[in-house]
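Here is one chain, start to finish.
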Amino acid sequence: MKFIGKLLVYPLLAVNIVAAMLLIFSCFGSIVAPIGRWPFASLSGLAFPFLYILNLLFLIFWLFVWKRGTLVPLATILICLVPTLRYFPLHLFKSGAHQEPCITIMTYNTEGFGIDDNKDWTVNNPVLKFITGYGADMVFMQEATRNVMNLASGDKEIKELYPYVGILSGTSAESCFSKYPIVHKEYISFENTGNGCQYLRILIGTDTLAVYNCHLESNRLGADEISGYHKFIENPTDSVHFDVSKKVLKKLLQSTSQRAIQARMISERARQETAKYVIVCGDFNDTPLSYSHRVFDRFLRDAYAKSGLGMGITYHEHKLYYRIDHIFCSKNITPLKTWVDRTQKDSDHYPVISRLRLE
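Its structure:
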């Protein structure tokens, strides 16, 4: 390699090595519990898509410029293969065909049935009509406004479709529609927070399904904070927006630590579950490369990672496009096909639907 070539290539190789290390950290940083000294480790997964694309671009660049340079991004991509497929599964030929015994479930943060957008508090609410029109066997909702749920539970057509309704007084408003009998329901509250988990035991034939319908700690970012953060990304030298970005980071660190505590609490209970089948689902406010996700992935199956295709973005506001709504199931449940429905946009979340075979 000529001297001029070395002057150009070696600095770029150094940048590639740094990008590779950051990608590896984003994939595996969530191993560390974000409690105490290292809360930022669980947030590293937020940077994964950008770092992966950067390393992929380096791989393409080295193919044309210096083939030996491809070793760095190629080795990094191989090291990160398992987390990458968890984040971006590639199940091209998963079948959603009906197989017995089989159930279809939906988890959906309704954002108060999209009241901010449609102002409809009746059974004609478009989000409610979307849910009931989907025909899933069970629908597990978060932020499901109680007065709309009360109206729905008394509506004749909805009662015929979903004779069993789970409504509890939790502040994060987890609720359930079910075609199967709900034999037990209770609310698990999280200390010093407005979030919680709805616990249900549902009878499917002679077997019991335990469901933990969760809403983990929100990042609680205001529109002004998100706007200021975006402006800081566009112009990092702006001191005003830099201060806003620091506040955003502080909130993110606090919330990820809180979610870790909540996820541990639910996972410890779910591990001791006596029901034959177990599902943990809901709005986790965390990506597939987070500590909160990893806590459940250690002993349950991530339905989307096992049977989905692509990123499966579930949150779609403020230019923050991530999969933060998840469905986990016990090892005796096989996810046949899991997908995200993007047709209903009144909520800031999209629903996740999964077809599950009970073994």
